[in-house]
Amino acid sequence: MRNTLLSVVILCLASPSLVFSRHPEKNLNERVTAYMENLQHRGEFSGVVLLARDAKILFARGYGMANLEHDVPNTVDTKFRLGSVTKQFTAVGIMMLQERKKLSVRDSICIYVHDCPDSWKSITIHQLLSHTSGIPSFTEFPDNDRYERLPMQVLDTIARFKDKPLDFPPGNRFQYSDSGYLLLGYIIEQASGEKYEDFIRNNIYEPLHMQDSGYDHPWVKSDRIPISGYQATRTSGGC
């Protein structure tokens, strides 16, 4: 059995409209514990809960299992794979490079992608960011379950969809595409001259003191990165 990807819930008590903020803090632990244990009992939550106000942690506890196969429970120190939440880091990386004049979101992606197919020449970086490129998402392919279990290099993953016809003319409509953000991660590498992992660490994690965040390497004995490409960021979360 593979490790189970679990949800992370972070609740920040910054607003008086939140239900828990209406009650004395001395009763908070009891109320939250009862609420969360009820959710866990019904099988509706597995992960970590953090409640905070004014930079003070009021409640933090893990629920459910981080690894069912090895009977490892979630704790407040459990790190989670973020999956597609990594897209926000990728988008920030692209905008940083634009600020530094390393690229423009109006650029054709073929400036950065080698052996670019003719159908991609009119696609811009902005269209990748906004899910309007028309490039089909490789995670929707019928054979994707098989590939997700294999270590693959990024260019090998790009090859899976590079010769596929576009789902629609670029800019014509919105359609969520993991392929687009995989390409954005690759473009970050081409424009910056750094590995994606290094760029995100040097420009986001370290400046923001995100000491519990990093790039996940599921195949530690391999020099390849996972097929999920640039969506392997992991973190312990925070408000």
**What's the story with the biggest beta sheet?**
3 strands, mixed
Provide mean pLDDT, rounded.
Answer: 83
What percent strand?
5-15%
Total strands: 8
Task: Look at the structure and name the CATH superfamily of the largest domain.
Answer: DD-peptidase/beta-lactamase superfamily
**SSE string, helix = H, strand = E?**
EHEEEEEHHHHHHEE
Question: Helicity range of the residues?
Answer: 25-40%
Any guess at the CATH architecture of the largest domain? 3-Layer(aba) Sandwich
- Which structural class do the helices and strands define? alpha+beta
Q: Number of helical runs?
A: 7
Q: What general outline do the C-alpha atoms trace?
A: globular
Distance between the terminal alpha carbons, to the nearest Å?
32 Å
Task: Summarize the structure in words.
It is a single chain. The protein is α+β, with helices and mostly antiparallel strands and 239 residues long. It is built from 7 helices and 8 strands; from the N terminus they run E-H-E-E-E-E-E-H-H-H-H-H-H-E-E. The strands form 3 sheets. It has a 3-stranded mixed sheet with strand order 1-2-3, covered by helices on one side. The longest helix has 15 residues, at 178-192. The chain starts with 8 loop residues before the first strand and ends with a strand.
